[in-house]
Design brief:
The complex is a heterodimer of chains A (137) and B (261). Chain A contains five helices and five strands, in the order βαβαβαβαβα. Chain A has 137 residues and is α/β, with parallel strands linked by helices. Chain A starts with a strand and ends in a 14-residue tail after the last helix. Chain B is globular, with a radius of gyration of 20 Å. The chains are: A alpha/beta (137), B alpha+beta (261).
């Protein structure tokens, strides 16, 4: 069974490429386009990992992260935060909110897949054979 | 005809008034123009990194999906090569914007300089021989090794650009102590180029200034050096005179060797 991930990013092109890269690697991906939608889907669908942009409309990524990490129902979901600003401040705030890892845009495919894989392994859950998108034809 | 005396200028926080330290001269304060360029650099870097993410992402996906098609791969590799250069440019713009301070730590600079030299010599080629000298024994300073390597790459390229064919670019690291002051680790990069006029020294770390003056590189190199140094709490001094080459001195706080674990 494919592992279910949620990608929250308001930039349609970035959401699309992250979704495609993760799907090629064998994951099932749902996309949310703002923080509030991301929070709602996370609570209802309980994905196994969330890729969360920091700067989002309606509710920013740090608030979404903090809210999910305070809820016993969702606190175990690993959160990988994306930041375009490359600001240490963003990472410090995100860590305080409970984020599990960070990726600074622009990142490479291997970095994304490696982080996702590591976080999923750390969180346990069902074993999953993941296709390596960097070597698949 | 007497040779012009070497001019030595300290350039602590050369572009921003907020980080001026004791000893900095009023002339090192930023101009409104350079402040505007710093803000502009930051804004461009922020937006461009999003665009670059899309370009890089889809190019990598194409490469993965067309691994057996040489014609497609050839084109995709060109896109990726250009994208990685653009990624470097974004990192440089972020350094100029000074909003991404690196994590500094106690580092023995000798191995960092040797590693940087091994990477840089092939890039300098026959144009200039790169010589590295470090005081004997471990020399620890508080800095970010990745930023230091980038600074050395930029300064060596700057030094080599003005150096006569076959002359040397030298990098020297030494502990400098003076009475009543904390010891500093000084890394000096010297090129035997034509030197910089006294009136220009204070402006040479502004974005695009040296490009306008001497047509060097993309004009951001020394501004990136200034940004990276400021973010590491280091300082810069320049020793130069027309016809006598230029030495850029980088100064970092020294540190004790980390305790063995």
């Amino acid at each position: 069974m494919k592992r279910r991930l949620l990608v929250v990013d308001d930039e349609p092109s970035i959401a699309k490429i992250v979704r495609k890269q993760l799907e090629v690697a064998g994951y099932e991906v749902t996309v949310a386009v703002d923080g509030l939608e991301g929070l709602t889907i996370a609570r209802e669908a309980l994905p196994e990992l969330i890729v969360l942009d920091v700067m989002l409309p309606k509710m920013n990524g740090v608030e979404v992260c903090s809210t999910l990490k305070q809820d016993p129902k969702t606190r175990q979901i690993p959160i990988l935060m994306l930041t375009a600003k490359a600001q240490r401040q963003d990472q410090d705030t995100g860590l305080q909110a409970g984020a599990d890892a960070f990726l600074t845009k622009p990142f490479q495919l291997e970095e994304l897949l490696e982080k996702v894989k590591t976080l999923l392994e750390r969180s346990g859950g069902p074993p999953q054979t993941v296709t390596d998108a960097t070597t698949s034809a | 005809m007497p040779r012009p005396p070497l001019e030595r200028s300290r350039l602590n926080g050369p572009l921003r008034g907020s980080t001026q330290r004791r000893g900095a001269r009023p002339g090192a304060r930023p101009t409104p123009h350079s402040e505007a360029v710093i803000q502009f650099a930051w804004g461009v870097a922020h937006d461009f990194s999003n665009l670059l993410q899309v370009i890089l992402g889809f190019a990598e996906l194409l490469r993965a999906q067309h691994r057996n098609d040489p014609a497609v791969l050839d084109s995709v590799e060109e896109i990726l090569t250009a994208s990685h250069r653009a990624k470097r440019l974004v990192a440089d713009l972020l350094a100029i914007g000074r909003r991404n301070p690196p994590v500094t730590q106690a580092v023995d600079v000798g191995p960092v300089l040797q590693r940087a030299a091994a990477r840089l010599q092939p890039q300098l080629g026959a144009k200039a021989a790169l010589h590295v000298a470090v005081d004997s024994g471990p020399q620890y300073a508080i800095l970010d090794p990745e930023s230091l390597e980038r600074i050395l790459a930029l300064l060596c390229a700057f030094a080599a650009a003005g150096t006569p064919e076959g002359a040397a670019v030298t990098v020297r690291a030494a502990r400098v102590a003076s009475p009543g002051r904390r010891a500093r680790l000084r890394i000096s990069v010297r090129g035997a180029g034509r030197g910089v006029d006294r009136a220009l020294v204070r402006r040479m770390f502004e974005p695009f200034f040296m490009k306008r003056q001497a047509g060097l590189g993309n004009g951001l190199e020394l501004a990136v050096v200034a940004g990276l140094m400021e973010q590491q709490h280091g300082s810069i001094a320049v020793e130069t005179a027309p016809g006598r080459g230029t030495t850029v001195h980088l100064s970092f706080p020294t540190a004790a060797a980390p305790a063995a674990t």
